[in-house]
Design brief:
Largest sheet: 7 strands, parallel
Radius of gyration: 21 Å
Number of strands: 13
Structural class: alpha/beta
Strand content: 15-25%
Helix content: 40-55%
Order of helices and strands: EHEHEHEHEHEEHEHEHEHEHEHEHHH
CATH class of the largest domain: Alpha Beta
Distance between the termini: 12 Å
Number of domains: 2
Strand order of the largest sheet: 3-2-1-4-5-6-7
CATH topology of the largest domain: Rossmann fold
Shape: globular
CATH superfamily of the largest domain: Glycogen Phosphorylase B
Length: 363
């Protein structure tokens, strides 16, 4: 009975692909044992058990790039996490390890390497981060979602799979009526879905807030995921638009959210981009400018260069985002072009392909 350890997390963009890989492994062989390792206090400690898997937390944290003094405890946390990761591997005895990015991936894959456990990296972005570039040296396989990744990794280790997504995202077209009832919206109106990632997005939230009157006044309705920090303010702003704006800090039913969306406004995290490709949604992307190595802009440009999405820079979102959204909603021809082109970049079998690569590493 194979045993697989999956490490990483920090945001929904890392957690949901990890869970999708675990589910695909279980579909191939229900007897497979899967153990997750995450970072204490991060989203994965809640979301992974909800998906039915066991998870152990490490005291690891990321490097604070804006306040270097805040990193004084980082070496101690890294060494403690590495020691604990070795203990977890010793107890669980995995046949293979998988890293999906996020704080916990580093110590777990480092420990796996030191203990002779083969491992696979799932690189979600079009620009590889520092940790994955370092870990790739001892990796047995690297599954990627974008072309031209040879600039970061050895060509012979790379397998182009795409990013794994939640299975319910693959079947959204038939759920529109259910979505209308779930979100309490009107059936005949075009709908904008606003998602700033699992933690929300300050600039997007402020831009939508400022332009809500224009959006609703133009005859559109809104499903708005705000993140925890903005939800109260957004709910107050939505009160005056009786039943035309749905606000939530986090949407679990993303299949329904996509099914109702005519246009999507989103950050350009790897998971969001992969989901937009699979659901073929005309999209306006606002990349997070502070993302490591500016990878969200690279992700967005991979679509923009294929005429598969529209980009609005974060710095100009407050002035331009709602105008661009209304313009796209009013242009059916542009919507059709974006939808057709973005769907051509979809990789619906990503989770299963990655799971198969994982199992090839089981000795």
């Amino acid at each position: 009975m194979p045993k697989v350890i999956i490490s990483g997390g920090g945001t929904g963009g890392h957690i949901y692909p990890a869970i999708a890989i675990a589910n695909a492994l279980k579909e191939i062989n229900p007897a497979i044992e899967v153990l997750f390792v995450g970072a204490e206090g991060k989203m994965e400690m809640e979301k992974v058990p909800k998906a039915g898997y066991e998870i152990i937390g490490l005291p690891i944290a990321g490097i604070n790039r804006s306040n270097l003094l805040a990193n004084i405890s980082f070496p101690k946390k890294l060494l403690t996490s590495l020691s604990e990761a070795r203990g977890i591997i010793k107890d669980f005895k995995p046949d293979v390890a998988v890293g999906v990015g996020g704080y916990a991936s580093g110590p777990v894959l480092l420990a796996a390497s030191m203990m002779g456990i083969p491992y696979l990296i799932q690189e979600q972005n079009s620009y590889a981060g520092v940790t994955n570039k370092f870990l790739s040296k001892s990796a047995d396989k690297i599954c990627v979602a974008y072309p031209n990744m040879e600039q970061f990794f050895k060509r012979e280790k790379i397998k182009m799979t795409g990013n794994p997504v939640r299975k319910d995202i693959l079947e959204v077209s038939s759920k529109r009526q259910k979505a209308i009832e779930h979100f309490g919206l009107f059936s005949g109106r075009k709908t904008v879905l606003v998602i700033g990632g699992s933690q929300g997005a300050k600039t997007i939230n402020e831009a939508i807030d400022a332009g809500l009157t224009n959006l609703v006044g133009a005859g559109y309705q809104v499903v708005w995921q705000t993140g925890k920090l903005y939800v109260d303010r957004a709910k107050k702003a939505a009160e005056v638009f009786d039943g035309q704006v749905f606000v939530s800090d986090f949407i679990y039913e993303m299949d329904l959210a996509y099914s109702i969306a005519d246009v999507v406004v989103s950050r350009a995290g790897a998971l969001s981009v992969s989901e937009l490709c699979l659901t073929a949604k005309p999209s306006i992307l606002v990349p997070l400018p502070t993302a490591a190595e500016d990878h969200q802009t690279m992700n967005a440009m991979s679509l923009v260069n294929n005429n598969a999405a529209i980009l609005v820079k974060d710095v100009s979102a407050r002035e331009e985002l709602v105008k661009a959204t209304i313009a796209l909603l009013q242009n059916a021809e542009k919507q059709a072009i974006l939808s057709k082109n973005i769907f051509q970049l979809a990789k619906p079998e990503a989770a299963r392909e990655i799971a198969e690569e994982v199992l090839k590493l089981v000795k």
